[in-house]
Amino acid sequence: MVCLAKYPSRTFDLNKNEYVDAVKEEYMLVERHEISNGDMFTINKRFHYDYDFTWDETMPWEILYKKEI
User: Fold this and answer.
1) pTM above 0.85?
2) The Cα angle at residue 57 between residues 51 and 61, in degrees rounded to 5
3) What is the pLDDT of residue 20?
4) CA–CA separation, 41 vs 28, rounded Å?
């Protein structure tokens, strides 16, 4: 499934010379793989726990496309 993830991000602004909070948007490809002891999910060809920083309860991911096989 293809999702649009919105998550808070902190970046350094060189003009203001301080850290600025912003909301980042990124498209995520989520795939489910059947393994011997259940299901495993990958996001953008990486393990799901590599993207823990993007999950925020106040801004859930929006599902743009989902295909059932």
Assistant:
1) no
2) 60
3) 93
4) 12
The helix/strand/coil state of 68 is coil
DSSP annotation of 30 reads E
**1-40 pLDDT, tens per residue?**
999 998 888 889 899 899 999 888 999 999 999 999 999 8
Cα–Cα distances in Å, from 12 out to 3, 9, 23, 24, 30?
27, 10, 14, 14, 30
**In the chain, where do the E strands start and end?**
2-13, 18-35, 38-43, 46-47, 62-65
**Number of CB atoms found within 10 A of residue 28's CB:** 15
**Averaged pLDDT of the chain:** 88
Phi, psi at residue 56, to the nearest 5°? -135, 130
